[in-house]
Amino acid sequence: MSSFQNTKLRNPPIVEAVFDVDCDLPPGFDLASLEVPIRARFADQYPKFQTQFLQTFAINAGTDSAPNMSTHRTVQAFQCRHEDEKQLVQLRAQGFSFNRLAPYTSLDDYLPEIERTWRLYVELASPIHIRIIRLRFINRIFLPMAAGKVDLDEFLKLGPRMPDEENLRLCSFLTQQVAIEKNTGHELNLVLTAEAPVDEKLPAILDITVASATITEPTDWPNMLQAIEKLRSLKNHAFFNTLTPECIDLFQS
After folding, report:
1. Measured in whole angstroms, how far is the alpha carbon of residue 29 from the centre of its chain?
2. Alpha-carbon torsion 218, 221, 227, 233, what sign?
3. Which tens digit of pLDDT belongs to each residue from 207-218?
4. Sheet holding 87-92, edge to edge
5. pTM here?
6. How crowded is residue 13: how many other Cβ atoms within 10 Å of its Cβ?
């Protein structure tokens, strides 16, 4: 376990944090029918409302006639946003999501609101069981460059490597690692990539998703919170063991 696990970062590099719950919903569940009560219950804190649709196409080709195309559009999610659009709640056809954009402080600061909005969702949608609880943290890390170059080994423990580093200059990278935590069965998905340099800095994107597949009662928040804490611990373990101490120091100034 990394010695940095309990480190509180002065300027976390998180640009978006997402709390997801996938649920088993009642037979015949119709998300579209909940639009009016959803608007009413969330309007005080999340006045901006948006509907996401899923549109499907089907082509029926008969032997004796021209192909016939049909379309079908269904409500995929309702999004309720803060006035500043830095925070939003999504009531999805498969469950619930809570998104927080930068500036981000700590998950502890958002857990009371996550619980409050989750309970509203349970009241409105009446989910039967929870199947998956998921946390996703997207970090943008600005690595300092010198003369257009950056020593990735100085900042990344899991940095990419070239087959011939004398003749080949790394211009971009994209790596993905998927793992299962032995003791819990929780899944970790870690993606590391780079964006185009900006002002002599290389923006590295560290995207960490952790998920727990478990059957939990939707009204049992203490049990959900326990799962969230375990997932957060796994996320922190991955974060602090991907970055070097020199990289961690970038978030303390």
Report:
1. 25
2. positive
3. 999 999 988 899
4. 48-60, 68-81, 87-92, 95-101, 14-24, 129-144, 201-216, 187-194, 174-180
5. 0.89
6. 23
